[in-house]
Amino acid sequence: MLNARTDTYFGGVTGDPFDETVERALRYIEAGADCIFVPGVVEADTIRRLAAAIPAPLNIVAGLANTIDTLTLFSLGVTRVSLGGSLARAALSLVERAGRELLLSGTLGFLDGAISYAELQRRFDQ
Fold this sequence. Notes:
This protein is α/β, with parallel strands linked by helices. 46% of the residues lie in helices and 10% in strands.
């Protein structure tokens, strides 16, 4: 699958990013792209308009420029949702909170809800 990326919503376009995105998407599709990847879009209405204007599956990043949940993104017409570095950022945030908690109070509250060592090992044994 060829997922063609356009960074029009990260800046760098002189005109309207919506129009530029659609124009690029149409050229990408004509060149053989299967999906159009548009990271950096913030507004739900813009995402809905992009999905309607682009005659190919639309890929949006959740958690980068917007915090729109995946079910809403799908309801807006998005076909593929990427996370980019969101999972890594979430994991690193937990590491930072854990370190701060250990340093300041010495407690282990950051482990609340964590998978047990035995369960983790069981999953690796499968």
